[in-house]
Amino acid sequence: MDDAAMTAALARPDAYPFPVDDVSVIETHISRVFLAGDFAYKVRKPVRFDFVDFSTAQARRDDCETELRLNRRLAPELYLDVVPIVASGAGGTAQMEGNGAPVEYAVKMRRFAQRDLLIEMLRENRLHAAHVDALALRIAEFHRGQPSARVEDGFGTPARINAILAECLGGIERLGENPGMAREVSKLVRSRATALAGAVQSRLRHGCVRECHGDLHLGNIVLVDEKPTPFDCLEFDPALRWIDTISDIAFPFMDLLHHGRQDLAYRLLNVYLEHSGDYAGLKLLPFYAAMRALVRARVMLERLRQSEHVTGASMSATRLECRNLLTLAWRLVVRRPAALVVMHGLSGSGKSTVAAALAEAAAMVRVRSDVERKRLHHGMRPADGRYSRKESDRTYERLRAICRVGCGAGLPMIADATFLSSRQRDRFMALAHRLCVPFFIVQCEAPVETLKARIKARAQACLDASEADCATLAWQLQVQEPLTDLQRACVVPAHLFDPNSTPEHAR
């Protein structure tokens, strides 16, 4: 049975082992998905391109098995089985999940409503903070559980990234209508790839290249049983899924930015980083996010070229979106010097609430002392006290190291800690001076009785990383040090904070 006959046969309701009213077909350049009743069946086309070869039945079956294995890691509730397609009779009919000698195979999936895709939820303003938090946590846990690539495997190397980038940029330059802009972006991104080659190699050596999803845009994530569920991993090319974990999270981060939801993009990033602890990846995040924007533009242009039925309006819209993606890639790689912000206030003063709001509103990366203190001790309380000078110095040094990486990559940073010590405030101010970035202190204050009430309520709720209690507050009241004149010049009220402004002391 040839491809056309197979497609026609599977489009008939009687091709399925259960009652079906009608069958819908979704086409991609390498597959067809038949939507029948409560299920979706994905069938490979017998095609051969420079990036994939499905010209043999065995290759198509092997790819089905690979897709099932990979996607069951994240979406076992969606990916059910690899099932046979059997030719029946002499009239060119076929039976999905039939008995007899298979002529083809399909991946059987649980069907879902298109409106439950995160991209559709975003367009309809139904994607909320809780969805983003759950997605970030799920991806962090997924990355933690995946095997790391060996250096000798050849995945995640600077050469591999340059090859992917060359193919992508070459395609954009050939297909794009704005070759001048494409060339400028290409030149800039290639330059960054060269500059970051050492960091890319270091991440590989440290086990950060893992078997990831590979194509984690918002159209490949669906809400299933109220859980954001990534599906459709990149199964046909191992080099596109054995990647740096920070490149994987960079895709939904970029997609949210592209669709105008900076707040959700930075919420996703901050929740992911808080759970994964992979702040070292910030050095490469802007580059990988830019690369994701370019890949997205390349795919859209290719689909536009292949489309047989496209209106002038949709063509113009696609080309405009591609130009916006090129502009986003430019903005991600060419960034202004990033601000360094430290919070200041006693436990219960609302620092973390304010810092989280600022991170989303002003596109900043937040790092919390309460979380990093626990991470330094693997979740255990240090034997010599959580807030001893020795342990505090260790925690603040980690915060400072993270801020150094983030600011160095052009990402505005918020260090969320009490900063009651003048010495620690001065050290962060000195770091900002060395990095040539603006420095701000955001101060939070409240009456002591309010502080106590908030601390007690927080302890009862058991929803926050902070372990501070009223005894901790009493100690803080005794040891806190006043701001110096130079530090006071850096203070800005939270509601007036602008990371792009210049503090008074630096004018």
Structure, described:
This protein is an alpha/beta fold and 507 residues long. The chain has three domains: 3-111, Phosphorylase Kinase, domain 1 (2-Layer Sandwich); 118-333, Aminoglycoside 3'-phosphotransferase, Chain: A, domain 2; 340-506, P-loop containing nucleotide triphosphate hydrolases (Rossmann fold), CATH 3.40.50. It has 19 helices and 15 strands. The strands form four sheets. The chain has a six-stranded antiparallel beta sheet, sandwiched between helices. Strands 12-13-11-14-15 form a five-stranded parallel beta sheet, with helices on both faces. It has a two-stranded antiparallel sheet with strand order 7-10. A hairpin with a 3-residue loop joins β1 and β2. The model has no long low-confidence stretch (mean pLDDT 91).
Look up the CATH topology of the largest domain.
Aminoglycoside 3'-phosphotransferase, Chain: A, domain 2
> What is the helical fraction, as a range of percent?
40-55%
Percent of residues in β-strands: 5-15%
Instruction: Please give the CATH architecture of the largest domain.
Output: Alpha-Beta Complex
Summed up, the helix count is 19
The Cα radius of gyration reads: 26 Å
Strand sequence of the main sheet, in spatial order? 1-2-3-6-4-5
Pairing-aware structural class of the strands and helices?
alpha/beta
Task: Assign the CATH class of the largest domain.
Answer: Alpha Beta
The CATH superfamily title of the largest domain: Aminoglycoside phosphotransferase (APH), C-terminal lobe
Describe the largest sheet: 6 strands, antiparallel
Runs in which pLDDT lies below 50 for 5 or more consecutive residues are none
Distance between the termini: 76 Å
Shape: elongated
Domain module tally: 3
Rounded mean pLDDT is 91
> How many β-strands, per DSSP?
15
